[in-house]
Amino acid sequence: MRYFIDISYKGTSYHGWQIQKNAHTLQVEIENALFRLLGVQTPIMASGRTDAGVHAKQQIAHFDTAEAIDIERLKYRLNRYFARDIVINSIVEVKPDAHARFNATERAYEYYVNQNKNPFLQELSYYFPKPLNVDLMNQAASKLLGVQDFESFSKVKTDVNNFICNITRAEWQIENVSLVFHVTANRFLRGMVRALVGTLLEVGLEKITVEDFKKIIEQKDRTAAGDAAPPKGLFLSKVTYPSSIYSN
């Protein structure tokens, strides 16, 4: 039996999602909990990896069991097991060949910038008190839309076959006390969202123009783009799947 597990987490205390030697990661934490509660080693596969310090409002992972499980009981026991920084939102049965990574059709991220010093947002946003021209930032963000090569915003050491992504949303919005960058695509490259944010902030500071930003995309060179924004402001916010993967 295969199940999708919907997870929210605050990534501050974790060295990212993926299992790493001698590191406290979310995958290790969740697999250990499943082993303790199910009594067997239960590997999980996520929709994608989040870096150290990055958060998730919705991360999806799949796992297999030999027999059907009591979903609500497992969800309850997992939430009792975890510390406050991990929450299981739901567990649903899916078809045996459903895959949390390869079947995802869209992923959405949010990046939070806080321009007023706020002790309650220190670990959940990037404190950036300098004045920003948000209109220019949105003009530049609009240049990201569509199917393009985003090598300029990818980490250099990566194992992907290509740097092509289809971005369907890219915009800045003011929400409560934060400035939030919303970006949705079929896939993202390693470090891509943080590199986009760091470069768009340079547009907002008027250090580079909208036309400069467009040229950075076209250069396909990571050294042309700005520094990556800190991980603490980044959230994986939604992962979308076709309805056909779910069990009837």
Automatic annotation (TrEMBL):
GO BP annotations listed: tRNA pseudouridine synthesis
Gene Ontology molecular functions: RNA binding; tRNA pseudouridine(38-40) synthase activity
Residue span, Pseudouridine synthase I TruA alpha/beta domain: 140-242
Listed InterPro entries: PsdUridine_synth_cat_dom_sf, PsdUridine_synth_TruA, PsdUridine_synth_TruA_a/b_dom, PsdUridine_synth_TruA_C, TruA/RsuA/RluB/E/F_N
Record carries keyword Isomerase: yes
CDD domains hit by this protein: PseudoU_synth_EcTruA
Residue numbers annotated as active site: D51
Binding residues annotated for substrate, in chain numbering: Y109
The protein's Enzyme Commission number: 5.4.99.12
Key words of the record: Isomerase, tRNA processing
Pfam families noted in UniProt: PseudoU_synth_1 (PF01416)
Annotated catalysed reactions: uridine(38/39/40) in tRNA = pseudouridine(38/39/40) in tRNA
Family to which this protein belongs: Belongs to the tRNA pseudouridine synthase TruA family.
The protein's assembly and partners: Homodimer.
PANTHER family: PSEUDOURIDYLATE SYNTHASE, TRNA PSEUDOURIDINE SYNTHASE-LIKE 1
Function description: Formation of pseudouridine at positions 38, 39 and 40 in the anticodon stem and loop of transfer RNAs.
Protein name according to UniProt: tRNA pseudouridine synthase A
Organism: Roseivirga ehrenbergii (strain DSM 102268 / JCM 13514 / KCTC 12282 / NCIMB 14502 / KMM 6017)
